[in-house]
Amino acid sequence: MNVLRTTLAAAAALVIAAPATxxxxxxxxxxxxxxxxxxxxxxxxxxPFCAYGLEKKLKKLDGVEDLEIVLQxxxxxxxxxxxxxxxxxxxKKAVKDAGFEVAKVTRNFESEFADFDxxx
Length: 120
Prior knowledge:
- The protein is an alpha+beta fold.
- The protein has three helices and five strands; from the N terminus they run H-E-H-E-E-H-E-E.
- The longest helix has 28 residues.
């Protein structure tokens, strides 16, 4: 009876530990996302047409490879081409030209431009 309990306990421990091990192996095998991104927090967007207008302005900037805008949070995530970068002034101008205001700019890479956070 003790052998059965020990065997069942070991099997249960293996089943519980296995998913964590699989997840670790998958994470190790997944390629790292090293794309250069700029997150711009935009104030004043209230509808899909707002997001579309902003998208048109931001996609015109040199160096933009991809763009995702989340209307609910006002967050525009810009994925850049290779070693491209966009100054805070250009970002602010594009957002202003679309009719909105920049609250924050954050980069996931080293840049000559400092991150920007508008203080109230």
